[in-house]
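Suppose a colleague, Dr. K., hands you the sequence of a protein chain of 389 amino acids and asks what its three-dimensional shape might be. Before reaching for any lab equipment, you can write down a predicted structure in token form. Begin with the sequence itself:
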Amino acid sequence: MLISRKTIQLFIATIFAVLPVVTFANADTSHVAKPAHSEVVNHENTTTKEVVSEEMKAQEERAEFIQHHLLDSHDFHLFSYGKETGHETHIGFPLPVILWEDGLHFFMSSEFHHGEAVAESNGKYFKINHHDGMIYNTDAKGTFNVDEKHHTTNTKPIDFSITKSIVMILIVALLMFMIFRNLGKSYSKNGGIATGVGRFFEPLVLYIRDEIAIPNIGEKHYKKYMSHLLTVFFFIWFLNMFGLTPLGVNVTGNIAITASLAIITYLITTFTANGNYWGHIFWMPGVPVPMKIILAPIEFLGTIIKPFSLMIRLYANMLAGHVVLMSIIALMYTFSSPIGSPLSFVLAFVLSILEILVALLQAYIFTMLTALYFGAAKEEHHHDEEAHH
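The predicted structure, expressed as tokens, is then:
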């Protein structure tokens, strides 16, 4: 007997609809008789409280693990072991801490002992706040003062530290320099033919030139913007890919990084734009004069909104992807069912594959929109073009 495809799909959908109920549901204890002796009641209440306490502690640990992956840090923590025995050992390496507070302070982040100790430098005391990962001025005991909204009121020194995100930025910069330096050398040595690793990246370079830069900027002006477009594309792509590794780096999920990239795009667009670009913003042709006065501030505001959208789009997409992925991984330790954990693992694996595509897609979208902004800044006046024809 043949089973139709719709029947199979309905059966699979029914299984996935029932599984959460089977996995998450607590056992029904309404039919259990109440104990006769108060000692048994107290014992069960104590046991229940201990279970709830352990469950809350586990949830806090998972939340801290997700937060540790998302936030920047002053050390490179790889993994830990021995927590069950009470002697937890952290494997990683410290990074330089550079602060300015009534003078320069330089020491290694190991002085903080993973945020548990107070670091002393030239008579000043500093400590990392676990809630935001920032360094604050404190006393010798490491006291944090909070207001009624539980916000830390301690002052912060000016922080020039080499954090985990900065280390990854330097690694990606060095990697890009080596790859494209060798690609350039292979062109000169082999008559314009790429060799080695450059063979993989050459089609991407040509694609950005032929499908992004030339169509959006034009043959006349695209060359002066190619270095920025290539740098932005590969920089974002490499950082996104490193963010999917067990190293726990989330550079493009840091709004300061995406804001810096967007500001650079805005500055290049602003300082290379021609008169026609500014004429369309401040004195739009073809509309009545009163409307020109009204539209001028709106159009100028649009030039600021464009890089802002670049910043938010990259930041929100990468941050959301990391949050969802880490949350699903945490579910593997939450489920007590032999079905729930494997399902969470499969879902996390599938989402990881999707995140690889998103990493490349976000780099492409950022580069494409950047080229569109550059093209608008260099667009020629249509009346002049018609006069030439």
